[in-house]
Queue: 4 jobs
Job 1
Amino acid sequence: MVKVGVLALQGAVREHVTCLQAPDVEVIVVKKIEQLSELDGLVLPGGESTTMRRLIDKYEFLEPLKAFAASGKPVFGTCAGLILMAKDIVGQNEGHLSLMNMTVERNAFGRQRESFEADLMVTDVGDDVRAVFIRAPLIKEVGENVEIISKFNDEIVAAREGRFLACSFHPELTDDHRFHQYFVKMVAQAKLEGVKSV
Ligand code: GLN
């Protein structure tokens, strides 16, 4: 049994909870800092990254979230969650949680393509993973330890760096739960290996 939290300050929280639900997973809706200590892994949902950051600051979540990630516990960010995880954001002086060595561009598909769906090949997840893009960011550059796990039209839309996983789309808005199952496997593996051996 693993305990996976969904940060519930803003955004598509309920959808992630539904996707994570499985006999070997206890899903926890995280509204308080104290709840982080009981988790084996954490999901940062999509929504709006500047709003989410404001709420993270308001409820003093920034340092506890960084400490959670630094302890080696897996983190999975979708869309705005991916933006929170990037070290660099185009046009901004600094990242938010700055967990993954990558540069992201917000709202990178422009107005014409505010939202759309596609079936994507995602390494170790599937070759027809349903992806919903909504005012989605793109990963413009990755550092050497970052594995690119999916591309759409030659642009990077999902990546993994050790125990951190991020995608620019919303797997939680589909009935395809494979991306979440993949993250749960990462969480179970990390729990088995222990948090300090990162
Ligand atoms: N465009 C949003 C942002 O910059 C992200 C959109 C989403 O999470 N669907 O935060």
Job 2
Amino acid sequence: MALPSHKPPHIGSEPFSTESYFQTQRPPPGLEDKSATMLGFVNKWKDVQGKKVVLVTSGGTTVPLESNTVRFLDNFSAGTRGATSAEYFLSQGYAVIFLHRLHSLRPFSRHYSHSLNPFLDLLSIVQPSSQEAGSSSSSSSSSPSIVVPREHARTLLPILQAYHKAQEEGTLLSVDYQTVNDYLWLLRAVTASMASLGRRGMYYLAAAVSDFFLPEDKVAEHKIQSSKGTLSLEMDQVPKVLRPLVQEWTPEGYIVSFKLETDPELLIPKARAALSRYGHQLVIGNELHRRKYEVVFVERTSSSSSDQVPSKGTGDDRLKGTETPPILPEEGVHNGDGLGAAGVALKEGYKETWLRLDDIKNGAQEAGKHVGGKGRDGEVEIEELIIEELVKRHQAWIDAGQETE
Ligand code: PMT
């Protein structure tokens, strides 16, 4: 990949546009190889009739403070949402490109993460019986063996089976990134490959992408010395790549972005603002502390032909470059209270659907039923519900495309 050859058109205090970003920031090492691998994966599945392919982005991006990097800014994301969702997409028959932060959680192995459930704790050592040890000359039968006790094997078996299935079928491709720069270049490359899938491609953008970065010309080459006293940083804004992704890179793709807030009051206005600004199909809102138990789907209804087929809008140019939520019709914040597990609220132009684990569990309890899921130990995970809903919407998007052909 050639290095940027001309000077930045953004010099000074102008914020970076997506275009000026890619003209001025160097592509990461390994981009060509990773892009070729992703293209090969897409082409393989493109030829399989009806096969749907999803890009899952996962984990946080880093912002290095030095080019010989000792220190960097990071965020909280462990990649749970992305790794878990990838498993459910696979179980729904998708081919999955899992674009993830290096060393963040991965599909299948996430169940045995070193901090929560170290895999060494699963294993037991069985010493050979004195008979075996005495009678055999071969060292293998006299050595201790390692076994997975039955109570762990029961849980491990379905995970291992699903993992082997994905490996044998070649339906999971994992590609890693570390910095926000790696992420942006890889996202653009994979989207360029997936665009050829048309409506069969889904983009599930769960990564927590840094909003600020240090452009190359502002990054210190060597370790910043603490002897120089306090450290002041002025960071530039990362361009929001959702706009070109939706409108130029993959106009036919089914695009799902996430919105994370810590103030629940902001969740729906911000999700609506994102839909309005970028013109894609769906925003999944989640509040930091409740993200494992409830999420809200926010979609437009105004120009859609049916409840299940969100239309792709054009994006609202008046909102370019602003993070302020627009004054939307019926802007009142709606938290979906009392709407049930998949409570639906219709407001002018927007539809909100809440998915809540608690409601499902309470509903099942009231009905005297046990509610089981596909998670470890048979529990329900919110991602199982999210993916079930998304598969329906994605299929409706594909069908609507065929009707208009
Ligand atoms: O990994 P976990 O611990 O399970 O946490 C999961 C999660 C909370 C990180 C995830 O569910 C989530 O909400 N991810 C999105 C976080 C967020 O709010 O991102 P954002 O507001 O910066 O961006 C919104 C969307 O725009 C995202 O889909 C992002 O991929 C996209 N984006 C962001 C920055 C940028 N420069 N360009 C983008 O396209």
Job 3
Amino acid sequence: MSSSTSKFTGRHTAEPLPADLAAAIRGRFLVFEGPDGSGKTTQLARFAAACAAADLETEHVRDPGGTDTGERIRSILLEHSEEDISPRCEMLLYMASRAQLVALKIAPALAAGKCVLADRFYASTLAYQGTAGGVPADEILSAALIACGDNRPDLTIIFDVDEQTAAGRLSPLLDRMEAKGAAFHARVRKGYHDQAQQDPDYVAMIDARGTPDQVTANIIAALRERFCAPAASQPQIVKPQSVKPRTAHG
Ligand code: TMP
């Protein structure tokens, strides 16, 4: 029986994931990433439902959050506050939440052979506190090693959308991070593009502008390309232009 649940956006019904793909991602650690308004959370709920329909056991988590302690840290990070929170303080709070998530949820799930589906992970820290916030990437990666040990994603899928499309998908009540302004969020998007260029074996960028069904097809194509050989179909994966040295995976 599947234990997949869509905890954050409610129940979803879905076509089962194709059996060969379900087998290929069993025991893998997959991260859905992207700018605010990219649609990744909705797609992750659909994908978790498709896994459940295929009887693939998953652990569906969100970062920051996903544990009692992590949810309290999430409130500090996302609620508006009188005092500015420095990028380094933000970085360490995200890592603290992540350390707890790894210890309580991700590492045990991987040890049990489940497929872990995470809504964000340290690629967010590299994009938001790093490229956009100015914290050096090597400091972030050092902190990630402390927080996560060797629990690294097998694949991070970045949902790429232009700023206008993303802004149109947000609720008008912006949280503290969403309210950082257009220039900050343009740097976040650049940060994600940089990661896809630098680490193409572990970071796939997909076009997230289409209909929900088109975006789901793009996710499945990215997973097939990474985990099923030979690739059955390869529509609309945004290929990095050049390959630079890897970052998060050494
Ligand atoms: P979300 O979980 O609803 O996507 O919101 C989390 C917010 O926190 C989002 O604006 C991205 C931001 N964030 C960071 O700035 N750094 C991080 O490491 C993570 C995980 C999220």
Job 4
Amino acid sequence: MAVTNQQLIQWKQQGRAIVALTAWDYAIAQLLDAAGVDLILVGDSMAAVLGYETTLPISLEEMIYHAKAVRRGVKRALVVVDLPFLTYQESISQAMHSAGRVLKETGAQAVKLEGGYPAMVETVGRLVQAGIPVMGHVGLTPQSVHQLGLRQQGKTQEASERILQEAIALEQAGAFAVVLEHIPSQLALEITQKLRIPTIGIGAGGDCDGQVLVTSDVLGLAERHPPFAKVYTNLREQITTAVATYVSEVKERKFP
Ligand code: KIV
Ligand code: NA
């Protein structure tokens, strides 16, 4: 049965861990979906496989193009699409327009946007009222890389209290889940206990309701990966070996 955002809330209540990964095309999405991933995020972290240095340059058009391919590969998982930098921060109407395009043009079921400050909470509330499911994202928010860097967030008492309040505000605005990125595990635990909606952690310890990783990190396809990523296989090595073998076989006229 297809996963819904209500299902994720039920799984939290039942203590059933939620499994999320990112995808950027049909082939990857199909494999992840068939392997039992519950939530597939078309994350703007796909910047890494498109050759961008940060997530900032990605356009809404690019996100929609990739989300359509991902959606075609998914039968069961909930598909969530990141709204890219400066396609939702300007105004509620800009956010409505961008999120509306994503849902209408890709067939994805939800959008994710970064930040839990008051204006963003208001935006989330308005999107939800309009029928657009929203996943929040607090802690390290990579679209703010030039302000925050990529450091762990929430290390001081003040910062950790602010992140907790942001997560609570996003829940009250109607978000169906919230990503907690690169924050101390103790803070992630506290947020997870205080919220009714599920927390999906990345670099936030083992006590979140679910976990998400960037698939290009998991598969060893990325040139670099953050310290909290677990690399389960090394596709860069495997692809290099396969292609080098092909190159030499063709040159030596061993293949075909
Ligand atoms: O873009 C992305 O992959 C994300 C996850 C790290 C949550 O936002
Ligand atoms: Na993202």
